[in-house]
Amino acid sequence: MKFITNSSHILSTFFVFLLLTLSTHAHAQFINKKWNEKILITPKNSEINVSWAVSEEEKQQGLSGLKANKMKKNEGLVFVYSKEMPLKFWMPDTHFDLDIIFLDKNFKVVAIETLPHYPSRNEPQKIPTTKVYQGQFVLELHAGMAKKYGITKGSQLKWKKALDQKFQKSLGIK
């Protein structure tokens, strides 16, 4: 009987640890502690708090595995590329629909697509993908937020406080 009690306690402890680990990881993956959070100003003068996906690992992870309640409606994730290039995004293991906003080197909107979530990595041919667009940055927001903020093709997004040269260099921006 003592063995069963101890086994139950060990199993309970394991599940609590697993739950805490997964929930902490999901939140930590959005708010990237390596890069300072910055604020974008939209055409309607709304503020978007952005985190950054800079390394290849961060870009591959993106918002995959993140639950909708771990990212506020006024938050977004900016994917950073060192120069303008053809970009195409997909939605593996996503748990909420996203507005995917392609931006040029000056944060002018090149294109916007809203893609449905796909909470799996199985059957890659079924995972929603965007068309290919030329850009240097991609901003991901909760679906519908681009429209709410007045973000359309050709819109100019601005920083509340300009990105200093040192920060840009640390991001690998040319």
Task: Please explain how this structure is put together.
The protein is α+β, with helices and mostly antiparallel strands. 26% of the residues lie in helices and 28% in strands. It has 4 helices and 7 strands; from the N terminus they run αββαββββαβα. It has helices at residues 2-30, 56-61, 145-148, 165-171; strands at 38-41, 47-53, 75-87, 98-103, 109-115, 133-142, 158-159. A 7-stranded mixed β-sheet has the order 5-4-6-3-2-1-7. The radius of gyration is 19 Å and the shape is globular. Residues 1-29 have low confidence and may be disordered.
Question: What's the short story on this structure?
Answer:
With 174 residues, the protein is an alpha+beta fold. It has 4 helices and 7 strands, in the order αββαββββαβα.
Category from helices, strands and their pairing: alpha+beta
Distance, first to last CA = 66 Å
Average pLDDT, to the nearest integer?
Answer: 82
* Run of helices and strands: HEEHEEEEHEH
Number of helices: 4
Spatial arrangement of strands, main beta sheet: 5-4-6-3-2-1-7
